[in-house]
Amino acid sequence: MNHKKTNTDNNGKESNHTHMSSRHCGTISRSVNANRPKTHYLIGLRTRLLVFLHSILPARCFSCIMLHAS
Questions:
Q1: I need a labelling partner for 60 at 20 to 30 A (CA). Which of 5, 13, 26, 53 fits?
Q2: What is the secondary structure of 11-70 as a DSSP string?
């Protein structure tokens, strides 16, 4: 099963665009205005969880999880 979120644009056509939350906008604003911006910014619990799992699991195990997650 494929459970992709879709939104409808002004013409009634489905699109895969998602709206940015205030958390995303705040992080982008801080990164643009920073004197020394970071290479990567983690936004949201899922992203932090994936980075944590990637750091503790073997590469093959993490790849298997990622293949089955989507």
A1: 5
A2: TS-EE---PPPHHHHHHHHHHHH-SS--S----SHHHHHHHHHHHHS-HHHHHHHHHHH-
Element (H, E) at 7: strand 7-8
Give the burial string for 30-66 (b: 16+ CB within 10 Å, else e). eeeeeeeeeeeeeeeeeeeebeeeeeeeeeeeeeeee
Q: Enter the DSSP assignment of 10.
A: T
Residues in the chain: 70
Which residues are bridge partners to 56 per DSSP? none
> Which residue's entry shows tokens 């099963």?
1
